[in-house]
Write a structure and sequence with these properties.
11% strand, 8 helices, mainly alpha, globular, 150 residues
Length: 150
């Protein structure tokens, strides 16, 4: 239980210097646990039925990525194809789009599978670009995301 408490504490802003001072032999474990915890938190936020998700790359006045994009990046950086696959079948269409985008960025699926996954997503997808917000289908939202990303 103590390890879990330390891990949760470490997830706020990354491993603290105090945690890292436990010794170099534990450093890889702490970094891996931190990455795993962040990935789980990101997945939980993206798959929450109460999440307000938006597909975009540079949104709002300052041109920041929406939180859902950042959370997808955490899953990709952690190599969590398992969580991205679960996300690709989540209830929210925006979560499914991000699941497909993440799997493609991770190199787990090819472009044909990516296009098929997007075609299978029904319902409107909330999308943003700068201060402009609109509703699109999954392919349009992903295409706009890809345009911003590349």
């Amino acid at each position: 239980m103590l390890g879990f408490v330390l891990l949760v504490t470490a997830c706020q802003d990354g491993p603290s210097p105090d945690l890292m001072s436990v010794g170099p032999q534990l450093e890889p474990f702490i970094r891996a646990a931190h990455t795993t915890a962040l990935a789980r938190i990101a997945y939980d936020r993206l798959s929450s039925p109460n999440a307000r998700l938006m597909v975009g790359w540079r949104c709002y006045y300052a041109g920041h990525a929406p939180p859902s994009r950042n959370e997808t990046r955490v899953l990709v950086d952690a190599g969590r194809a398992d969580l991205l696959r679960q996300l690709a079948s989540a209830p929210a269409p925006e979560a499914r789009v991000y699941g497909a985008i993440g799997l493609r960025e991770l190199g787990v699926i090819d472009s044909k599978t990516y296009a098929t996954m997007l075609s299978d997503i029904e319902g409107p997808v909330q999308t943003c670009s700068g201060c402009i917000f609109w509703t699109a289908n999954a392919k349009e939202a992903a295409a706009a995301h890809d345009e911003w990303f590349n």
